[in-house]
UniProtKB/TrEMBL annotation:
Keywords: Oxidoreductase. The lineage of its organism: Bacteria, Bacillati, Actinomycetota, Actinomycetes, Mycobacteriales. The keyword Oxidoreductase applies. This is NADP-dependent 3-hydroxy acid dehydrogenase YdfG. GO terms for molecular function: oxidoreductase activity. The keyword Nucleotide-binding does not apply. Belongs to the short-chain dehydrogenases/reductases (SDR) family. SUPFAM superfamilies: NAD(P)-binding Rossmann-fold domains (SSF51735). It comes from Rhodococcus tukisamuensis. InterPro entries: NAD(P)-bd_dom_sf, SDR_fam.
Length: 271
């Protein structure tokens, strides 16, 4: 799909990968609603992009795990630019570590990392089916294909996000709905370093695991990879090419892979 003249919503658009996606979409001729829980951050990104590409973006503060607030974003896009063509479900959180994560921790991670995608699709896919096309881009993680040392909430919800994106693709891919799923490893965003800054042993190990596994990419580089995949309508987006080889090793011998991950975790924890 060519993004020129398309109307897009980018969640988590106040910085990081989301902010880079907004800039790239606008540069390629799209109109974009920049959504973020941090309204000021969304506004800053929007103003910066509009300075380079006037009239291409508007911003809004929104909790995109809330169906009513997703509806508000869709209405904003329609009033400012027209019907939504593309939805980038990019907002995400790292979540608590270990089995001490409580019910509220699990609820928050499931709501932000998974249900936000489901709720957006429930609102948009029926419209897209009527129009004959639409594009849903899910930001998951390499943790959704492999796993995440430290945080069960992150690993489980990112696996679920990949699964939901797969289901959307299988169910609606022959009816004009395009679906892609982004699964990066380390990207130079605040999210990457939250574990390191937490002081929690598992959280610090999680950050070390990601930064040691491959290059830490800049958000702009990831956005370039995403938009190239969207143009080609490819499902799996892997900015870190080694993730595919890791995934193949996992599938080829699951028990061997699990043993290797346990040894790797022991190394990171200094056990």
């Amino acid at each position: 799909m060519k993004v020129a003249q398309k109307v897009a919503i980018v969640t988590g658009g106040g910085g990081g990968i989301g902010g880079a996606l907004v800039a790239r979409l606008a540069a390629d001729g799209a109109k974009v609603v920049v959504a973020d829980l941090d309204e000021a951050a969304a506004r800053t990104v929007s103003e910066k992009v509009n300075a380079a590409h006037p009239g291409t973006t508007v911003s809004a503060g929104a909790d995109v795990s809330d169906t009513a607030q997703i509806s508000r974003l869709i209405a904003l896009a329609e009033s400012e630019f027209g019907p939504v063509d593309m939805y980038f479900a990019n907002a995400g959180i790292t979540g608590a570590t270990g089995l001490d994560a409580g019910e509220s921790d699990w609820d928050l991670s499931i709501d932000v990392n998974l249900r936000a995608h489901i709720r957006a699709a429930q609102l948009l896919v029926p419209q897209w089916l009527d129009r004959g096309e639409g594009y849903f881009v899910s930001t998951a993680s390499a943790a959704g294909l492999l796993t995440q040392i430290g945080s069960a909430t992150y690993s489980v919800t990112k696996h679920a996000a990949v699964g939901f994106a797969e289901w959307l693709n299988v169910t609606y891919g022959d009816r004009g709905i395009r679906v892609s799923c982004l699964c990066p490893m380390g990207v130079n965003t605040k999210l990457l370093y939250e574990g390191q800054e937490s002081g929690d042993a598992l959280g610090m190990a999680a950050t070390r695991a990601v930064t040691a596994a491959g290059d830490v990419l800049e958000p702009d580089a990831v956005a370039d990879v995403v938009l190239a995949a969207v143009e080609d309508e490819r499902f799996l987006i892997l900015p870190h090419k080694q993730v595919l080889e890791m995934y193949r090793h996992k599938g080829a011998d699951y028990d061997r892979w699990l043993r290797g991950m346990r040894r790797y975790q022991q190394t990171l924890l200094g056990d």
